[in-house]
Structure formats: structure tokens, C-alpha cells
Here is the input.
Amino acid sequence: MATMALEGLRVLDFTWVVAGPVATRILADQGAEVIKLERKPGPPGSRQIGLQGDLHRNKRSIAVNMSHPKGVEIARRLAQISDLVIDNFSARVMRMWGMDYASLSQVNPGIVCVSMSGLGHTGPRSSYVSYGPTLQALGGYTMLMAEESGEPAGFGYSYADMSGGYTGALASLIALWARKRTGKGQFVDLSQFEAVISVIGPALLDISANHREQSPPGWTPQEGPAAPHGAYRCRPRDGDDDRWLAISVRTQAEWDRFVAAIGDPGWAADAKFRTLYLRMRNRSELDAHVAAWAAHQSAETAMQLLQNAGVAAGLVANGADICARDPHLKARNFWGTVTLPDGRTTHVTGIPMKLSATPGAIRTVSPEIGSSNDYVLGELLGLGRAERDGLIADGAVWP
Amino acid sequence: MQLNDAGALAGLKVLDLTTARGHLCGRILADMGADVIKIEPRGGDDGRRLGPFLDDRPHPDRSLFFWFYNLNKRSLTLDLKNPRGREILLALARGADLVIESFTPGAIAELGAGWKELHAANPALILLSIAPFGQTGPYRDFAADDTILTAMAGMLYVNGSPGQKPVRPLGLQAYHSAAYYAAISAMCALFARDRIGQGQWIDLSMQEATISAVEHVAGSYFAEGRVEPRRGTLHWSRYFRVARCRDGYVMHCSLGDWTSLAQWVAGDGKAQDLVNPEWEDVLYRAEHAEHLFDVLDEWVKDYARDELLERAQMLRLPYASVRRPEALFEDEQLAARGYFVEVEHPELGRKIRYPGAPFLFNGTPWRVRRRPPLLGEHSEEILREELGLDAAEIATLAAEGVI
Here is the structure.
């Protein structure tokens, strides 16, 4: 097997739900040894597919009872031989176990501790209970995902978990990198709330510098003027009328190519569409023409037609489009394949970065809880069979 | 302490050739202490022409878009199409750890500064290429902006109300997702370099990064063959939905301690059938989410947003008020953590509050080292310090239009 970028790094992973596991998944995909420390096993076979399959692949799992002093002792011994301890609990949990940075750095000065709590460990609202949707709402982002009427219309998913997740992976790597120079670990107090508000950075600057109230953007172009710019409903596909093509036309040359590609319709010659400035001013009229054209097109064919002419156009892809039909993602082998315990295979989301010398790999399916007990307790901590059985009998470890 | 003050990535040298779609990656690295040189074409980077502008007065040095994405970088103008400009780039690359570019695939190779030339100039160098669809595959040369990328990554389709047109998110979310994955990939390549002894070429597809920033679409399809629809504000897990209240909106959450929530609602005389024991089962609540939230909508409509939020959080219920982004500037939590930072713009005689870092490093903190650069602000300094050119040589380059 090719060498992996993060080989040799060991991560003790206390994370759960979504954001934390996204962070450690990214590290595991690049070769870090990620050991999930989890609670009592649930029914087997429940987390190898779907989102759960995406979140925990390439990781190991041990089932340790942190309410038992011997469970805490196991965790502390593992922290001594780990590079990174990561959690997404509120501030008090790791402290209660003596697993916080102040405690762990005394026994392992090189340890990096990353805590990915909802609103951070400090400040008057650090004790808030939150999930991704909570944070998006508090952060002003739910309000901006709205219909033109201003009525909120999203998110139907937790964007905050994904932004928190990749921010957590990045912060971990940066702190580990600093250790190479300083020789010391450190504590990173990451706020998922702050991670998700950072994704609207330029709008925040617009508020602070220009005092401008932000409104939902609708289809107003956000990268300089563009017209047409929008999603246009296309011909149904196999009875599904929820087919749309996104189009962005900016320069005069793009406009000329766009008009030629759709067959030089008479309306396009109208003086009111002559320049970008005029097209922006008469945008709704222009949109109506483009919509009428799109309604007779297949979204896929129209995308190809416009792209062949060098016009930015893309299918508003649904789950089946990206997972089963997109020829480009197939050609790039984006989707990963893992083998399930019963021998069947399933697909998981791939690794969105191709490193030429150390490409990363999806090696193993999400583990059953506790499936690495023997490896971790036996090989890493050097506990013999009798000692491991004793821990199980004590209730410190679940078999 | 001085070492630590320099930042976690002190000592790393980065050449940032990116166009607007790739700006953020270099900014993230610069924030943590890397020396990031933004190499701009004559006339300035395309991001300088994008609004919003300070006081709505368009000018290359007043773009808030450029400011946000280029804080902490230095600026060198360099004409890469000029052979001498290309030589300077390769000379700088000899002393650099990372080159980031976001041109159309193949464009830097055509300039004579592709992977082959850069690797020959400096085998330890990492080249990070950020492109809409990556460096290979049938869509490699497709034109795309952030709108097209969010469409083709499956992000756009799931935003909005059922049956209605999909809704564009605010901000360039494909670019943001790509930038974070790009920065992660650069860090991975740096770790790898310490072991394998050389740099490598990273092919970062913005489409793939954006797919990785959508929580549920691929998982639902692969697990159940389900095509995730637009659901309005109902979260796909069916535990969250937005409701109108007296002075705005709140976010319901049916996770957390059900007894506390049910008692509160019952105390207000609005519980209807929610007092029945089956609602204690969290899966039942998800299954019957529409009815549950309809009942709860009736309950919250007379509450004020913040009143509901404070009381819910006292009961450890993960409710939220749906706030406006302007409220963030008055937010006590962000203030206590120092999220917003004042950045001095001496050229304007003003201080501007910028959004800061989403994390606090206790050893090597995030820091503003310099405001976003004016166009070409550091050209002379960089050529003098990095390449040892003297004033006369620099003047010649300027006269010839190379810098």
C-alpha cells in the first residue's frame, strides 16, 4: 500500500453525533490511526451504511465505560501514547474525567487537545445545548436561507456540522504542525458556532464596515454582475419535473456564445439585452425568456450544449445525479466502496483531495463498537487476556 | 515566547497565485502564521473588482470581498506571461514550501510554471491546484462559478421549499468548502513531506469538496436509495423545524429532555395530545414530526424569540432563536471570546471590525499580522528580501512592466 500522509499519528477520538466524527474521518482517510472511545455497543450492523458509514470508516472503536475509574484509567493511558485527543462535548465533560488539556499535558507534554464544542469553552453562553441547526439559527444563517418573501426555507440539513468538522480537522493538523517546531502540544478551543458564521465572512464585513443590513440573496449574483444567472426548470426526466439547470453568464463574449448556442432567438437581439448593464437591469424579462427556452430542454443535454460553447451551466443535481449518474465523478473514482461484514459492498463519500504521492484511502468499513478492544488494550496498552477479562468483569470495558 | 507569537505555521512560505475562487485557502494559512505572498497580475487580482466595496465606492483597494479573503497576506504584482516574470516565480518557488493556484486546469503548465517546472526547481515544493472539477475527467474544462458548483455538488437542490425553485445560499459556499479541504490537503502534504522527503501535487476538486460539505444527500442515496428532496426548514433528521413567533422565528428541536418540554407546553395549556406517553419515544417524535411541530407552532407563536431561547436553554432544551446576522455584532458570547477583531487601515485612517478565528489556540494563537495588502504593496520588499534584487534591478522590472 502507498504511504499515507498522516501515518504515525494516533488520535484518541471522543467525538460523537456529526461534526466531530467528520473531523476525525478526514484525518483517518489520510492514514492517522483514529481510535473511537465509545459507550456500550448497540445492535450490530447499524452504522456501516449511509451517513454513519461515511462518518466512521477507517476508524477503530473501543467500548470503554468512562463512569468507571478503570475506564478513565484506560483513557488516560491511551492519551499518553496519542498525539491528539479530540472531543465535541461541552467544557465540563473532559474536565470531569481528568481528560482535559491541563491534566493530560502533565503526563504527555506533546499532546494536542482539540475540543469542538457548540459555542466554545469560554463566554456567558458556553453552556448552551446546541446542534447544527441551532447554531445556524443563532448565527443568522437560517434567516438568510429564505424565499424572496423572507420566509425561511432551509436549511434542511446541518451545514454547521460540516463546517465545524472540516474546521476541526484543520485546527488539529495546524496544532500538530506547530508541535514540530515548539516541541509542545496545546489546547484548541473550537466553537462550531464561530465556524459556521465564518462562512459568511464578506457579509459580516459589509455589516461592520458599511452598516448594511443583509437580506437573503435570492438569485442576485454574488460574484459581480451576471445575467442570465439562475436556476431554470427543464423538461421532466422519467416523470420527475424537479429538473433544473443553473446558468451564469457574465462577459459579453459569454453572452454572444450563449445566444448562439441556444439558436439565436429573436428576443436575444432586443436592444434591452445588448450589454451586461442592460441585461442586469432587465433581468426578470431576460429570465422569463431563458426559462421558456429551458422548459423544453433536458437539463443534462442543455448543460452539455452550453458547456460546449464555453458557458457556465450545470445541472442542479439531486442525490441520484451525483451518486449514480455523474460521469465525471465516476471517471475520477470519487465514490468509495467498502465491504460490509456480511460480504456485500456499499458506497461511501470519497476523499475530496487527491495527493499525488500519498493519496489517502478508504480501507475499512465503520467499525462495530468495541471491535478493536483486543488490539487497543492488548497490543497498544500491553494488557494480557486475563487483565482484559478482568476489566470486562469489572464493567470498565464492554465486550 | 517569540516563537509562539509568530504563529503555528511560522516559517512556512506560500506563493498564492489563486484567482478569487481560491483565495480563502491562503488566508487560512496566513492567519496561522505562514508567510503568504499573493501574486497578482498587472491591474490586480480579479477579487479586487468584486463587491461589496467600502462605502460602496468601487476601487481595487476598497473591496470588502478582497479584504476578507486576503487578510494577513503580502502582495506582489507579477506578469506571469512575461518570461522574466516566470523566472521570478520559479526563483521564489525555490524558497517556498507551497504554491497554490486556481487557474483553469493546465493554464500554469502553459505558462511554463506547471508541476514539472516547479518540481524541477524545488523537489520539496508542494503544488496545490484548486479547480472547479479537478485536473482530470470529462468535466475538467467545464466553466463554473460558485452557483454552478453548488448546483453540481447537490447542495443547491436540497435548499428551499418543496416544489419551489431551489434557493441560493448567501456566500460562496463551494469556494469556502473547497478552501478548507484545500488547506487540510496542504497540511497533509507537509506532514507527508517530512517522511517521504519531497513535495507532491494536490488535485483539489471544488465539486468534490462541496459534496463533502453536504450532510445527508449521498448517505441517504447509498443507504436507502432515497433522493433527498427540498424540505423547507424541516431538518432531514426530522428533529428540527423553524416556527414563527411573536417577533420573528425560532428553531424547534425535539431532541433533548422531552419531559421538560412537554411539561412547559402543558403548563401553557397548549400540549393537545403531546401529553400522551408515545411522544416520549424520540423516534416516534421524528416519525410524526409534522404533527408535533404543528402543535408546537401554536405554542410558540405568542412567545418573544429571546424569551423562548433563554427559558429553553435553562431547561437544557436545544432551542434557538432565528437571529439576523447583524445581531452577531451585539452577541455577548462572541464578544467574550474576542471573535471580532479591529484591523487598522492606516491608508484610510479607519479601523474596521473583521470576523476572526473560529478557534482559540492557547499556545500559538491566531492573530492579525497585517491588514489585507494594497495592490503591489510588497513587491519591492519581496524582491529585495527573498531574491536579493537591488533597487536598480527592481526599477528595471517595473519599467518593463514585469512587476
